[in-house]
Design brief:
This protein is mainly beta. It has 1 helix and 10 strands, in the order H-E-E-E-E-E-E-E-E-E-E.
């Protein structure tokens, strides 16, 4: 009896996952990486979106804009993978006092650069929730120049149809 209940529960969970969809127009939520941030994602079509991200790092703030291309993932409704490009502007201080372990001085920087993004997202059908996991490498071209490959984040969004 216990095996039948477990099998029934597992099959029900698979059915819920298979019936999920990725269609939402706007997603607003929290991005969690080395700092905390706000993410607003607007799906222009099923395959194209733009995302704005404002987040803190090194006791400063970064503002990022991204253009993304989406495709179905795992041949299951609700799952999409995406990639894209964009840019950022950041205002932060360096030095160990401000949480940046690579610098010894205490200068303030305004940086401008380019970003890439590669990620996977899931949108629930039953509740207005979108979850994503992504990697967002960035290069600073103006201000402090450098390549940052460590930005991996989880984003939780309220999905508005």
């Amino acid at each position: 009896m216990r095996k039948i209940l477990l099998l029934t529960g597992f099959m029900s969970l698979l059915g819920l996952t298979a019936s999920a969809q990725s269609a939402y127009k706007v997603g607003v939520g929290v991005r969690l990486n080395y700092g905390y941030g706000l993410s607003v994602k607007y799906n222009m079509t099923q395959k194209k979106s733009v995302e704005g991200i404002v987040y803190t790092r090194w006791k400063g703030v970064n503002i990022t804009g991204l253009y993304q291309i989406h495709a179905p993932a795992f041949k299951t409704a609700g799952w999409r993978w995406y990639y894209g490009v964009g840019g950022h502007i950041g205002f932060w201080r360096d030095g160990p006092r401000y949480g940046n372990p690579w610098f010894d001085n205490y200068n303030a920087y305004t940086v401008i650069g380019g970003d890439g993004i590669l990620g996977l997202e899931y949108t629930f059908r039953e509740i207005p929730l979108n979850l994503s996991l992504d990697w967002k490498p960035a290069i600073n071209l103006i201000g402090y120049q450098g390549l940052w490959l460590d930005d991996v984040a989880v984003t939780v969004r309220f999905a508005i149809k």
